[in-house]
Amino acid sequence: xxxxxxxxxxxxxxxxxxxxxxxxxxxxxxxxxxxxxxxxxxxxxxxxxxxxxxxxxxxxxxxxxxxxxxxxxxxxxxxxxxxxxxxxxxxxxxxxxxxxxxxxxxxxxxxxxxxxxxxxxxxxxxxxxxxxxxxxxxxxxx
Length: 142
Prior knowledge:
Layout: H1 2-26, E1 32-33, E2 37-39, H2 44-47, E3 51-53, E4 61-64, E5 69-72, E6 78-84, E7 89-93, E8 102-106, E9 110-119, E10 133-141
Parallel strand pairs: 1-6, 2-7, 3-5, 4-10
Antiparallel strand pairs: 5-8, 6-9, 7-8, 9-10
């Protein structure tokens, strides 16, 4: 009977260890996004003049023209961004890595809300702060 309990304990330890490995290596430190994707048509000099949306825009309304591009730069957290509805604004592909969370474009006229959740990016084995940031920005594309 004692051998049976030892086997059960070892199985539980192995399951927990495997679960921790999956959790640690599943986060890439990159933003997750559900919005449509389009290909970049701007040049680097044009990107320098784009409007930048930051955490200071939390709980505000941003107005854009259809086809207008802008940068989302929310800081050095792992951000999960969701636009609702998701077909009004799309992420631009092939944009430089130094633009924070990315370059986006107003695709269709309408109103959409960006819901963002940011968590610290921590290396395995490193002490990690226990906090999350949340933000909401309304976009009106005309």
